[in-house]
């Protein structure tokens, strides 16, 4: 048991580890829910467990959602089926590695969270406005990270459309085609038994595409996500002790830079945001293969921030 807690502490204490943290959270929530469901079912409280799950799943009913607004966030960390979570986490790992390598951990988290929110909002919107879905909205709930995952998938395909994965039996396939097939399957499934999940896929896919398009134009609309996460993480970090410094009144402080000192555009060893944006623009036009060795190194360094 001590080893498990040590693993949890290690997973969240290391920097540049967002992909593993997202996977870890999903696995832990899944494991806890499976254990609780088994215990409650064996004890004859299976219906109570089903009721408790409505506090984690996203309801299509707007009145119920108004009393449980947090479900717009909790639903995309919630799974109850083994193959559901395995499929989602494998895709998150494969495509998340690309986003993490070329855009960094923070933007991977942005895509996951914003994709989940977009998928949930799209689900609520369509189930309360489209007649076909309104007829099926009674007691409809949604859970799973599919919207978040397909957001990461489409974002990777938009950023690196010609990057190839070697698939079993199929060989090398460009990820833009993989993403396109997933979107088409989601469109066709919007009138099936899992309409809500496929609707969430489409919301996440739109978000992933739009996010990269705007990022290449120099706008990162995932900054509010980082601001919120930074606020909550700061609540759990110990404050550093205050430092008292002595200032000589005969040598007043001046903010003017020393002309003999070089001025850096960013952190030492890291490229500036302007350089990164230019490299991303080049990737979108000519593909990753067109980058020089120096540009690839700059992109890698930026991902380590």
From TrEMBL:
It is a multi-pass membrane protein. InterPro entries: DUF6576, Peptidase_S54_rhomboid_dom, Rhomboid-like_sf. Residues 69-212 form the Peptidase S54 rhomboid domain. Pfam families: DUF6576, Rhomboid. Keywords: Membrane, Transmembrane, Transmembrane helix. Residues 247-269 are annotated as: Disordered. One of its GO terms (molecular function) is serine-type endopeptidase activity. Residues 272-305 form the DUF6576 domain. The keyword Transmembrane applies. GO terms for cellular component: membrane. Its main location: membrane. The chain crosses the membrane at residues 18-36, 72-96, 108-128, 140-160, 167-189. It is found in: Membrane. This is Rhomboid family protein. It comes from Rufibacter radiotolerans.
């Amino acid at each position: 048991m001590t080893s498990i807690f040590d693993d949890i502490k290690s997973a969240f204490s290391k920097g540049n580890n967002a992909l593993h943290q997202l996977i870890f959270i999903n696995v832990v929530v899944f494991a806890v829910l499976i254990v609780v469901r088994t215990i409650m079912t064996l004890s004859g409280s299976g219906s109570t467990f089903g009721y408790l799950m409505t506090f984690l799943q996203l309801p299509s009913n707007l009145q119920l959602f108004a009393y449980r607004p947090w479900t717009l966030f909790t639903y995309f960390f919630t799974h109850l089926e083994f193959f559901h979570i395995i499929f989602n986490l494998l895709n998150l790992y494969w495509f998340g590695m690309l986003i993490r390598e070329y855009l960094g951990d923070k933007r991977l988290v942005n895509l996951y969270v914003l994709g989940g929110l977009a998928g949930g909002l799209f689900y609520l919107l369509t189930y309360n406005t489209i007649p076909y879905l309104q007829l099926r909205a009674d007691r409809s709930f949604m859970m799973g990270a599919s919207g978040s995952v397909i957001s990461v998938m489409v974002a990777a395909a938009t950023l690196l459309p010609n990057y190839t994965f070697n698939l079993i039996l199929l060989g090398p396939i460009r990820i833009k085609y993989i993403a396109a097939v997933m979107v088409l399957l989601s469109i066709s499934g919007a009138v099936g038994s899992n309409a809500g999940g496929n609707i969430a896929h489409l919301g996440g896919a739109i978000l992933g595409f739009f996010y990269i398009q705007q990022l290449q134009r120099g706008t990162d609309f995932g900054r509010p996500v980082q601001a919120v996460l930074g606020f909550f993480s700061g609540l759990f970090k110990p404050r550093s002790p205050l430092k008292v410094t002595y200032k000589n009144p005969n040598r007043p402080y001046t903010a003017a830079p020393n002309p003999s000192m070089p001025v850096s555009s960013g952190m030492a060893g890291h490229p500036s945001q302007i350089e990164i944006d230019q490299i991303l623009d080049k990737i979108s036009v000519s593909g990753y293969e067109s980058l020089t060795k120096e540009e690839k190194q700059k992109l890698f360094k930026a991902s380590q921030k």
